[in-house]
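Notebook p. 47: complex prediction with calcium ion.
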Amino acid sequence: MKTCLVSIAALVAASGLAQGQVVNDGSFEASGPVPPGSWTQFSTNFGTPLCNGECIGAGSPTEARTGQWWAWFGGIDTAVEVGSLTQSITIPAGTAQLEFYMVGFTERTDGTDFIRAQIDGNTVWTVTDQTLGPYTLDYTLVSININAYAGGTHILKIDSVTNGGNLLTNFWIDDVVIVTGGTGGCYANCDQIGGLTGNDFQCFLNAYVANLAYANCDGVGGLTGNDFQCFLDKYVAGCS
Ligand SMILES: [Ca+2]
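Predicted complex, C-alpha cells below:
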C-alpha cells in the first residue's frame, strides 16, 4: 500500500489560496494576453512590462515564476526604459504585507537603475543596481510591511527606471499578493472568511512560515512558540 502524506507545504499552499485576494491578477496570467486587465501597464520601449517569453523572441521559453506571464522591467541597454504596473487595491483593516518574488541582473554599478513599490505615491520598497545582490540567483521573496495602508482603497504601483548606456539591467517580478490578517478586532480570523475554522490555523501557519508581521501574535521579539500559544488563546476566546 502506498502512503499519502500531506505535507506542511501543501497545507501552507492551501491556506494561501484560502486568503482573500487584495491584488487582482498578481501572476499576470490574465493581463498579459488581454491587456490591460487588472493592471494599468506602461513601458517606454515595449508597450508593457509583461512578457510570456515572446518578448525575447518567437518560441522563447517563459521565465515566469508561475504560469506563463511575468513582469520584466528594464531589458534594454541602448535606451532609457521606464516601466510601470498600477492598480487600485482595497485593503481590509488590520495588518497587511505586500509580497512578491523578484530576480534580477545588472551590469550597472552607479545605483541609478531602480525598481520600487509605491502606495499612493509613497515609496515602500526600492532596490537599485547596487542593492540587487540578494536577488540575483533566483526568484526571491520580497515581503513589505504595509500596515500603514490597511483599511481603505489605495493605488499600488510597481515601477522602474533603467538608464541604458550599454549597461543592461533586468528586474523580473511575479506573484504579487497582499496578505492581510487580524481584521475587525478579531485576530484569530486569519483568513477573514466566515467564523473561526481550521482554515484559520492553516492561515496562521502560513503567515508564521512566511515570517509575516501578522504571525507575531504576542508582539514580542521574533516568531516563537509563544506566538502559536497566543494564537490558540485568541482562537479559543473566539470572535464576537
Ligand atoms: Ca505569472
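Notes: Confidence is low (pLDDT under 50) at residues 1-19. The radius of gyration is 19 Å.
Next step: compare against the earlier run before touching the bench.
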